[in-house]
Amino acid sequence: MTEGHFLKAADLKKNIKEKLEEAGIQDADAEVRLLLKAYAGITEADIYADPDILMPSEEALISINEALDKRCRHIPLQHILGKTCFMGFDFNSPPGALIPRPDTEILVEEVLRDYHEGCKILDLCTGTGCIIISLMALTGDCIGTGTDISEDALAIARENAHLILEDKKKLPDFRKGDLYEALDDGILYDIIVSNPPYIKSGDIENLMPEVKDHDPLIALDGGSDGLDFYKRIISGARAHMIKGGEIFLEIGFDQASDVTGLLEANGFKYTKVIKDYSGNNRVVRAVSPVL
Ligand code: GLN
């Protein structure tokens, strides 16, 4: 290969795509676009406008090759770039917390539908903080609390809050603890939201290497039936929410009836299942009883 900046971006794009496909990476097209943008500042539109556009520098080429090498070893792109776009915000996503997923945007959108001014929102298993931080950024006036058992995750969440929330006076209150453990008695939330670990323990070894080898196991493992966290979240919820408050839970595609069953057994009303853009059941919401 000649000097990096004499190389056409379009040719590099083709080489990268081939290497990614050889390594078995799905959606190589999207990943090439992200790599070129991140390391060379070149977009698809730039290549379309000028098919002969050159790589900007030798350094850009070196960085892109290093990133490609990691990606071919199935390190997630979100760890290589260190960032993940979620709800239009760039979240830091280093190892240590679950990489934010597009599916979880459905959960945030569902909360936004019913949000009212000054709402107190509790996000359990907050991870990178992507849910509560997005809600605070998009509503401007909700009062957010996030809990997680992992100190590493909380450090990432706090940094993300500083990066993303412009009004630094109103940051989420991040607390370390197992679900409700870190909360003060007597504080009642209007909304509880969570994307808890929900993979069955026995299914984890079948996940893609990007997930099983790089997302924290505690952020994935939902116990033998995948429902451990739902059982604990739902049975504890009413003690921490107002009467008529709402709960929103992300679920696995096959967990809707189990999770609605748990909600109903605990007195919750108006359970509703929402699908993601692939047509899979993805979110369950319900209202806590007024009486
Ligand atoms: N709430 C975070 C997210 O949705 C982390 C979830 C988790 O650790 N299971 O990305």
Question: What does this protein look like?
Answer:
This protein is of the alpha/beta class and 291 residues long. It has 2 domains: 4-73, no CATH class; 84-287, Vaccinia Virus protein VP39 (Rossmann fold). The chain has helices at 9-22, 28-40, 44-49, 58-72, 77-81, 102-114, 130-139, 151-164, 209-212, 228-237, 256-265, and strands at residues 83-86, 89-92, 120-124, 143-148, 173-176, 189-194, 241-250, 269-275, 281-287. The strands form 2 sheets. The chain has a 7-stranded mixed sheet, with helices on both faces. A two-stranded antiparallel ribbon has the order 1-2. Helix 7 (130-139) links the parallel strand 3 and strand 4. Helix 7 (130-139) runs parallel beside helix 8 (151-164). The model has no long low-confidence stretch (mean pLDDT 95).
Task: Give a nutshell description of this structure.
This protein is of the alpha/beta class. Helices cover 39% and strands 18% of the residues.
Bound molecules: glutamine
Cα shape: elongated
Oligomer: single chain
Task: For the largest sheet, list the strands in their spatial order.
Answer: 5-4-3-6-7-9-8
Class from helix and strand fractions? alpha/beta
Helix and strand succession?
Answer: HHHHHEEHEHEHEEHHEHEE
The CATH topology annotation of the largest domain reads as Rossmann fold
**Mean of the pLDDT scores?**
95
Please give the domain count.
2
**Major pleated sheet:** 7 strands, mixed
Cα radius of gyration in angstroms: 21 Å
